[in-house]
Amino acid sequence: MLHRGNLRRLTGATVVVLLLAALIAFYAADRAGAGPTRCQQHRIDSRERADSVTGEGQRVLVIGDSWSVGLGQDDLADSWPSRLPGEVHVAGFSGSGFSVHASSCGPVSFHDRAPTALSVRPALVVVEGGLNDYDQPSAAIETGFRDLMADLAGQEVVVVGPADAPSRSRAVPRVDALLTRLAREYGVPYVRTSDLDLPYLDDRLHLTTAGHRELGDVVADRVAALTPARPAVPTR
């Protein structure tokens, strides 16, 4: 049986231990919260890139992944869509793709984000991606593509396929062939980029600044060759 004095000392020690544990937990949480998580950073970058509208003229919407966002660039606004003609709006999210589970950051697939992105009322929608679908089943990619086309019904659409990024090179032919077939089925122009020899960052997945310029210029030329001239329409 504990003596009253011992009980007080034990209670006091317990309080000290609990306070120390709380302080340690608070410190650890504070350290962990020193910077955003990967998904939080992707959301921050996505909003920043969406706010960076480039060019003038016909309104163009690019729905894409980290390449459209400009991940790895000092200025996200320098990502490849800035090379496209027109007033270019970018709805990108790093890690996203056609399939639902290409990203682990929640509902951020192209289909998930398209309805909101269309609020800019574009004259042309350019969908760029496929590299993040590299490990996804073909059935999942196809489902995502079909859902996206339903979202974009009535829009003029161009699909830009994956380039041959070294870190995912083995998966590109399968995804490229699947997107080619689906685009043909829907009568949507398909811009193949897997033939390009682009410069990459050290991660062998994301483009250098020069790579963004080269890709943007090539895509702009190929889109122009695949799509008819569009009459001017009001942008407001």
Automatic annotation (TrEMBL):
GO terms for molecular function: hydrolase activity. It comes from the Bacteria. Keywords: Hydrolase. The keyword NADP does not apply. Residues 62-213 form the SGNH hydrolase-type esterase domain. This is SGNH/GDSL hydrolase family protein. It comes from Nocardioides potassii.
